[in-house]
Amino acid sequence: MDRTDRISEEIKREISIIIQNELKDPRLAKMISVTSVDVTRDLRYAKVYVSVLGNEDEKRDSCSGLKSAAGYIRREIGRRIQLRYTPEIIFELDDSIERGVYINKLINDTLQDNRREADAEKDSGNDG
């Protein structure tokens, strides 16, 4: 694991703590998780991917709440992590968790349909 990976992990951990315990913005949804952080090699920018559990309005509101808190979060990161330069925080919505849940549902639905078809064939085979 190289230096930028370690810094990314540290920033991810600290931002998660800040979002859960310190931000009091009413626009923020209850379930926000930081899924990953990508820090550029020069440590100028940190792209923070967040997953928001909720409808489209809640996601949009949470994104604008996080964007308006970016300056505060950056200052806190600078205070907590000793870096020569504190990266600018850029929030991105990550819907990979929701996509995974949706794909899982499709797979389960398909398996149930296949079981029903197999049971129906078994039942109709017993008639003759």
Could you describe the 3D structure shown?
The protein folds into two domains: 3-94, GMP Synthetase, Chain A, domain 3 (2-Layer Sandwich); 95-128. The model has no long low-confidence stretch (mean pLDDT 92). Helix 1 (3-21) crosses helix 2. Strand 1 and strand 2 (45-52) form a beta hairpin. A three-stranded mixed β-sheet has the order 1-2-3, sandwiched between helices. It is of the alpha+beta class and 128 residues long. The radius of gyration is 22 Å and the shape is elongated. It starts with a helix and ends with a helix. It has helices at 3-21, 56-80, 96-127, and strands spanning 32-39, 45-52, 88-93.
Short précis:
Helix content is 59%, strand content 17%. The protein has helices spanning 3-21, 56-80, 96-127, and strands spanning 32-39, 45-52, 88-93. The protein has a three-stranded mixed β-sheet, sandwiched between helices.
Give the key terms.
single chain, 128 residues, alpha+beta, GMP Synthetase, Chain A, domain 3, 2 domains, 3 helices, 59% helix, 17% strand
Q: What is the ordering of alpha helices and beta strands?
A: HEEHEH
CATH class of the largest domain: Alpha Beta
Number of helices: 3
Portion in beta strands: 15-25%
Mean residue pLDDT? 92
CATH superfamily annotation of the largest domain: K homology (KH) domain
Q: Between the first and last Cα atoms, what is the distance in angstroms?
A: 65 Å
Uncertain runs are none
**Main sheet characteristics:** 3 strands, mixed
Q: Based on helices, strands and strand pairing, what is the structural class?
A: alpha+beta
* Name given to the CATH architecture of the largest domain: 2-Layer Sandwich
What percent of the residues sit in helical stretches (DSSP H or I)?
Answer: 55-70%
Count of the domains: 2
Radius of gyration: 22 Å
How many strand segments?
A: 3
CATH topology of the largest domain: GMP Synthetase, Chain A, domain 3
Shape: elongated
* Spatial order of the strands forming the largest sheet: 1-2-3
